[in-house]
Amino acid sequence: MESPHILFKGIPVTGTVESFADKLQSIGFSCQKTEDRSILCGVFANKNCSIILKSTVKTNQIWQVIVLIDPIYESWIQLKNDYNLLKSMYINKYGQPSNDFQYFLPPYVEGDGNEDHALKDGNVFYGACFDTNEGSILLRIFNNTITIGYEDNINRQLNQDELETRIMEDI
Which among 167, 89, 79 is positioned nearest to 130, based on CA atoms? Predict the structure, then answer.
């Protein structure tokens, strides 16, 4: 039976953050707790990574999984090659992205020989969004690394509803 929720590593993105973290730990991820969140570490798409789990504001239901590929890239060429390899794999699995962007902010232009400087200055914007019936996946270059965000449609809406309820209670 198919899940109405988007899958991350074959696990439906649903339930409490703690129960989802437990499922990731059962397949080899380790957990590091900080003051305000849990960060899981392991391997995703054959790369070492850190994973951040985001929950709804009231009921603590998971709605987003964010993968941060380790380590931070120092070379634009290696980062772009890894990004393009992952993007081609996502296209192979999910089809063409619904949104696809690749640009540099001035004064930088790809091909000018200053890509590493543009990367360090935060002036590189690459991303591809893949929509499914259950949610969306955003692959992007962000802060000198590759991030991959999995958002579940049902629980994203739950989070939005809980945020709106909280605001209405405030006003």
Answer: 89
